[in-house]
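Re-running Efflux RND transporter periplasmic adaptor subunit to confirm reproducibility after the cluster update. Everything else is unchanged from the original entry.
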Amino acid sequence: MSRFWKIALIVIAVLVVGGVAFRLLHKPEAANGGYGHHREGGQGQQASQGGSGQGQSGGNGQDNAPVPVTVESTVKQNVPVYLTALGTVTALNNVTVNPEIGGQLWTINFKEGQAVKKGDVIAQIDPRTYQAAYDQAVAKQKQDEASLATAISTLDRNQQLVGKGYVAALDMDTYRNNVAQLKATVIADEAAARSAKVSLDFTRIISPIDGVAGIRNVDPGNVVTTTTSIVTLTQIQPIYVIFSLPEQNLETVRDAFQNGANKLEVIALDRTDSHPLDTSGFLQVVDNQIDTTTGTFKLRAQFNNPDSKLWQGQFVNVQLRVQTVAGGLVIPSQAVQRGPDGDYVYKLQSDQTVAMQPVTVAGEVGDSHVMISKGLDDGDQVVTEGQFRLKPGSKVQALKPGQVPAAPAASDADKKKWKKQGGGRRGNGGGGGG
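Result of re-run:
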């Protein structure tokens, strides 16, 4: 075979292989209607427009369906108005117990963290040296009292003899001065004995208050002095809570404090506001100055603290009731939405549509409600659940309180679109496999 025919056969083989490859690569387009551009532009476009029309009609049908929402009516009730702040618990009395005298510490008579009563002996210092000093003072007093008795007796006898000339008048002055001197000595002895008795009593370290003992600072056997701290006692029943409020609340608090017979209610809550720790508090003191650095003023409340839930140094949330609004308008707090122009609610209309109603929130009522001062009337119904699907004028299906609106169902157009996308992927996958 000549060279010409060899080259010709090679070219023909290349063309055949290229054609087959081209056919295989473009087979999915043929399966999906890649051939026949006129048919795609006509019937295909018509089908597309028909599908679009169906989708629009399905969407309009879905938009016109009532949106299920939960609604609740406004309620009138007496609403306490509270001012809130962060407070610090402070002990009513906080005493660091130091010995009044020095000596070896014999015993510790309390347990750390234990409640002690006023007058309890909480520690004992070696009393022997002080007992001896007291005994000496008492003995000296008795000795001088005996000398005084002798001097008084001598003065009385000589007083009877001076008129008879047996005793000189000059000696009588000496006898009288001796009696006066011994009386003064006895008085000094009595004072010395009392002083020794006080020192002896100081060997018994007494609790000065009712409180809770902290961690002891010294162990038995150590020699203590008047500068040695034995323990710190904290009185927590009753107990104080100190907090601060902005200066713009000063007039409100002072007026309520004066008009409320100085018994404004104060509630202490934990840091998460989940539950109250003590509700027995009342405002005791309003400070006499405003802190120019922070623009706040201090207040102090007193709590009975019967269960010892308040502890010194603890941070608590404080609620100070300054007044009670009679007939306040209350709605669930979840009904209030925040918009660019302020707070608003969706108000249910008589035609079962909703309107966006601006409101003014006067304050919180408990954990789940708020008081509205402007924007609503008694008996108005507001949407509490399902607001995310609403817009002004939306038609709604009002559900009873406590019922949760159902999730929106998929429209027919969305279902068709999903099926079309799914079918297309399956068609492409099948073409690739072929």
